[in-house]
Recover the amino acids of this structure.
């Protein structure tokens, strides 16, 4: 019997009433601060902690599974190289028109030994870097202006949609007439090729932001700049990064095209010279360098995407 019940029984006895002892069970007790479902705070905390640990273990299992199966990415390239080398050794592929992987590797080593490949690579990297910066910056800025403001969309988007339908390669003769055959037309062709993918994805990312998030920001008292900074830009970032990945791939393609315009240096120049002397192994080295440039840049963007979008949980494949 509790102290309160004893005191109540004493009062009733003093009044001449028969004392009544109230029986209480633990289930009838209400503990302040307990879970609404009737669970004690300690029990709720233990369940919540167990659920968090289970989620962490599941996430760690997914990461470990992806790391464990990374070797599968190398299966297809190794099989292709093996079949290529076997076809060359068995005579199915001519060494003069289709160099073997061993010949390509030997040629690449020779070009690196005499410094030719490094010099050409630096020139090509400078071209694609400047062109990519111009195209991505312009596409990002105009995409944000068109996406954030209806006036910007009315003034910018129709003209860009018309220009987007024009093939970039058809503009090369005009670029040569306007800017000559120096470095400027090469850089501008790369920038123009990167521009539209960045613009379209940025514009779509801004317009696809959930309107309820914007309304929630207004309810919380965010200013217009605060909404853009904390709601719209984070919501548009996934699309913008996809546009950046596409722009990088297009920039490598445009680099190949631009370096055919009377180039005197760069990877494209090496390939043009090799074509005149039937050096197919040098051409394959140039193609390999282009592929490595695109793959390396894509891996960098994927790393940035992984860090910048760490808050977003997405499907990673079964």
């Amino acid at each position: 019997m509790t102290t309160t019940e004893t005191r109540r029984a004493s009062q009733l006895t003093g009044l001449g009433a028969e004392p009544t002892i109230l029986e209480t069970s633990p289930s009838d007790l209400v503990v302040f601060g307990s879970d609404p479902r009737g669970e004690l705070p300690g029990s709720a905390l233990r369940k919540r902690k167990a659920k968090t640990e289970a989620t962490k273990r599941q996430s760690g299992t997914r990461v470990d599974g992806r790391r464990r199966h990374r070797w599968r990415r190398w299966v297809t390239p190794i099989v292709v190289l093996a079949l290529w080398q076997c076809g060359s050794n068995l005579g199915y592929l001519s060494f003069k028109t289709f160099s073997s992987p061993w010949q390509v590797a030997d040629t690449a080593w020779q070009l690196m030994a005499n410094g030719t490949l490094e010099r050409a690579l630096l020139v090509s990297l400078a071209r694609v870097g400047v062109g990519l910066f111009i195209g991505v910056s312009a596409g990002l800025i105009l995409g944000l202006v068109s996406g954030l403001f209806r006036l910007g969309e009315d003034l910018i988007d129709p003209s860009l949609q018309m220009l987007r339908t024009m093939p970039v390669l058809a503009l090369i003769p005009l670029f040569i007439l306007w800017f000559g055959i120096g470095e400027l037309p090469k850089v501008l062709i790369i920038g123009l090729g990167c521009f539209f993918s960045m613009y379209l994805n940025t514009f779509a990312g801004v317009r696809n932001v959930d309107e309820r998030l914007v309304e929630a920001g207004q309810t919380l008292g965010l200013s217009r700049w605060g909404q853009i900074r904390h709601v719209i830009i984070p919501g548009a970032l996934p699309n913008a990064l996809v546009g950046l990945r596409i722009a990088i791939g297009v920039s490598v393609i445009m680099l190949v095209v631009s370096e055919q315009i009377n180039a005197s240096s760069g990877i494209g120049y090496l390939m043009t010279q090799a074509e005149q002397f039937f050096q197919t192994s040098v051409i394959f080295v140039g193609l390999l360098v282009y592929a490595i440039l695109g793959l390396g840049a894509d891996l960098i963007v994927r790393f940035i995407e992984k860090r910048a979008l760490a808050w977003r949980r997405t499907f990673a494949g079964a």
Observations:
- Residues 233 and 262 are 42 Å apart (CA to CA).
- The radius of gyration is 33 Å.
